[in-house]
Automatic annotation (TrEMBL):
<dbReference type="InterPro" id="IPR017790">
    <property type="entry name" value="Penicillin-binding_protein_2"/>
</dbReference>
<dbReference type="GO" id="GO:0005886">
    <property type="term" value="C:plasma membrane"/>
</dbReference>
<dbReference type="GO" id="GO:0009252">
    <property type="term" value="P:peptidoglycan biosynthetic process"/>
</dbReference>
<keyword id="KW-0997">Cell inner membrane</keyword>
<keyword id="KW-0961">Cell wall biogenesis/degradation</keyword>
<keyword id="KW-0573">Peptidoglycan synthesis</keyword>
<dbReference type="InterPro" id="IPR005311">
    <property type="entry name" value="PBP_dimer"/>
</dbReference>
<dbReference type="GO" id="GO:0008658">
    <property type="term" value="F:penicillin binding"/>
</dbReference>
<dbReference type="GO" id="GO:0071972">
    <property type="term" value="F:peptidoglycan L,D-transpeptidase activity"/>
</dbReference>
<keyword id="KW-0378">Hydrolase</keyword>
<protein>
    <submittedName>
        <fullName>Penicillin-binding protein 2</fullName>
    </submittedName>
</protein>
<dbReference type="Pfam" id="PF00905">
    <property type="entry name" value="Transpeptidase"/>
</dbReference>
<dbReference type="InterPro" id="IPR001460">
    <property type="entry name" value="PCN-bd_Tpept"/>
</dbReference>
<dbReference type="GO" id="GO:0008360">
    <property type="term" value="P:regulation of cell shape"/>
</dbReference>
<dbReference type="GO" id="GO:0006508">
    <property type="term" value="P:proteolysis"/>
</dbReference>
<keyword id="KW-1133">Transmembrane helix</keyword>
<dbReference type="InterPro" id="IPR012338">
    <property type="entry name" value="Beta-lactam/transpept-like"/>
</dbReference>
Length: 619
């Protein structure tokens, strides 16, 4: 009996019997369903996690894995060279050396690590607090190394190389330099290291790349930048290099051919700089366009900046990095009068025979104080003037009346005037291929009511009719309007660049001329009258730019003076084109806070015209 019980116990506890018994017990369907659902859920979670790691963070983990097994040495690519219209190089790339910090290779002891970086900072003549702040603020998830210095001199290179400091690496690179740093600063711009925002906007960028930050360098950065090469050094588990391989060769950036005439640009800069110095002033603009196709021959902003030492200009007086030529908003003064005259003739409020008398001022009743009427001044009494004399003499009274009306003279009114501003594209950007351009500002009754809670008055129309008040334009927009008058009514997109050329001389991109608006049919009936008036500005003895009359070619022009800051300062403008019959150059000169109004711009304009005639037109 005992033996039977022992056998039964052994049979029950044995694996054989237990397995046989289980095999005989059927499982319910819900067990299989539960297992299937559970397994499916696990699969979905794993799949989603893998998809997230691969699609969203794949690049990050791939780079981290590469770091753990290898060192990647970047072979920098030189940026493409920028040339002027005659093939003169405006930029160059010179060999340089960059210093990098790689924390994982620094000594393990924390105090020794800090002491090492401090010593390197001292050798590089960099303030330790600045280096410390940069290290703390860096996003180390993007890269495991940090650039400490973008360019070191030969002595520093030798000292660091001799010390052979762990965690500090030197890589050969290129430094972007500019042949005429101040003269062409706002045309060419400058380059700088990328930041996290740049990398989010462009997945092709690496943390140590340099990109264009302003001007042509920024606008055409995708062409100029090129592609860095990479050489990978593979290590074993002990950190020893087992193999090295060039995984990508560096490809130089493409060249940029421009429409800029470098010699003209330099002359414009030096001549304007000289005039500002004589006046004791420091801010000015000069632009030269070909009105027949929109080519930008020269574009000068003073003050300029030196891209080789950009940090010293970031907080300098008069904001040297601000491109007033394309981003500054100004009252255009009397340079807007050709447009107002054209509008008045086209709207039929005057004819070429209409004469208006200027005694030096007009007065309007003051509803708030009848004993003190509002007085609007001419710059001098001009007597009876028609459209030709009004432009030549720059009579304010004539343009007050044809724009806003007075007594028996009807005016076109602010609504029609604004439509003509729009026709001449003053609210729009010109589309010039430089970064940071702005459009102008066109005031109207609705704007004034909403902003100031006041109605638009006739006096407001008077002010904007002579380029004062709240009417604002950019210098490039103002010159583009003058160019349209010069060429018969076509607005060309201003073009600084001409083409992009690869290393084999093949044109990859051609910046062809583009007509952005054509109002030839709208203005053809009266355009010749406006052109005649602008010619009289120079040709007549009473013209405001008569000092240009002795040039060996005919010039059409308009001067302008705009009072700003409650009449405490005066900005002076000159705009004009030549030769009168078949113009191939239109220029603008602006002097901020001038002493004698437009008289301070005319000599500069005259010398620019003469230089162009002697050095370009005759040849």
């Amino acid at each position: 009996m005992k033996n039977r019980q022992n056998i039964d116990l052994e049979d029950v506890l044995s694996d054989r019997v237990f397995a046989a018994d289980l095999a005989e017990i059927p499982l319910a369907d819900k067990v299989f369903k539960f297992f299937s659902i559970f397994a499916g859920a696990i699969f979905v979670v794993i799949f989603l996690r893998l998809a997230y790691l691969n699609a969203v963070q794949g690049a990050f983990f791939e780079s981290r894995a590469a770091v753990n097994m290898s060192d990647i040495k970047v072979q920098p690519s030189p940026r493409g060279i920028i040339f002027d219209r005659f093939g003169k190089p405006l930029t160059s790339n010179i060999p340089s050396n960059k210093v990098f910090l790689l924390p994982r290779d620094l000594p393990e002891n924390p105090d020794e690590r800090i002491r090492t970086v401090k010593n390197v900072s001292a050798i590089l003549n960099l303030p330790w607090e600045d280096v410390k702040k940069t290290i703390e603020e860096k996003d180390w998830g993007q890269s495991d190394r940090m650039i400490i210095s973008s360019d070191i001199n030969h002595d520093t290179l030798m000292e660091l190389t001799a010390l052979d400091i762990r965690g500090i690496y030197i890589e050969p690179s290129f430094k972007r330099t500019y042949e005429f740093p101040l003269e062409l600063s706002h045309v060419l711009g400058y380059t700088g290291l990328v930041n996290s925002d740049d990398m989010e906007n462009d997945s092709d960028l690496a943390i140590d790349d340099e990109i264009g930050r302003l001007g042509l360098e920024a606008y055409y950065d995708g062409y100029l930048r090129g592609t860095n090469g990479e050489e990978v050094f593979y290590r074993n588990s002990r950190g020893r290099i087992e193999d090295q391989r060039a995984v990508q060769k560096a490809v130089s950036g493409m060249s940029l051919q421009t429409n800029i005439d470098a010699d003209l640009q330099i002359f414009m800069y030096e001549r304007l700089m000289s005039a500002l110095s004589e006046l004791g002033r420091s801010v000015g603009v000069a632009i030269a366009l070909n009105p027949q196709n929109g080519e930008v021959l020269g574009l000068v902003n003073i003050p300029g900046f030196d891209a080789d030492n950009i940090t010293s200009f970031l907080e300098a007086p008069n904001d040297p990095l601000f491109s007033r030529a394309i981003s500054g908003l100004y009252n255009p003064g009397s340079t807007i009068k050709p447009l107002v005259g054209l509008a008045a003739l086209s709207e039929g409020v005057v004819t070429t025979q209409t004469k208006i008398f200027s005694k030096g001022y007009i007065e309007l009743p003051n509803p708030y104080n009848p004993s003190e009427p509002s007085r609007f001044l001419d710059w001098r009494p001009n007597g009876w003037v028609d459209i030709y004399d009004a432009l030549a003499k720059s009579s304010n009274i004539y343009f007050y009346e044809v724009a806003g009306g007075f007594e028996n003279q009807k005016g076109i009114g602010i609504d029609a005037l604004k439509s003509w501003w729009k026709k001449f594209l003053f609210a729009d950007k010109t589309g010039i291929d430089l970064t940071g351009e702005r459009g102008g500002f066109l005031p109207d009754p609705d704007w004034k009511k909403s902003l100031r809670g006041e109605p638009w008055r006739v006096g407001d129309t008077y002010n904007v009719a002579i380029g004062q008040g709240d009417f604002l334009v950019t210098p490039i927009g103002l010159l583009n309007y003058i160019s349209a008058i010069a060429n018969g009514g076509k607005f060309y997109k201003p073009r600084v660049a001409r083409s992009v050329v690869d290393s084999e001389g093949k044109e990859i991109f051609v910046n062809t001329q583009e007509v952005i608006s054509d109002i030839s049919d709208d203005i053809k009936e009266h355009l010749s009258d406006i052109r005649t008036g602008m010619r009289n500005v120079v040709a007549k003895s009473y013209g405001t730019a008569r000092s240009l009359s002795d040039l060996p070619f005919a010039v059409a022009a308009k001067t302008g003076t705009a009072q700003i800051q409650n009449n405490m300062k005066t900005n002076a403008f000159f705009v004009g084109y030549a030769p009168y019959e078949n113009p191939n150059i239109a220029i603008l000169v602006l002097v901020e806070n001038s002493k004698e109004g437009s008289l301070n711009t005319i000599p500069v304009a005259k010398d620019i015209f003469m230089w162009y005639y002697q050095n370009r037109s005759e040849n």
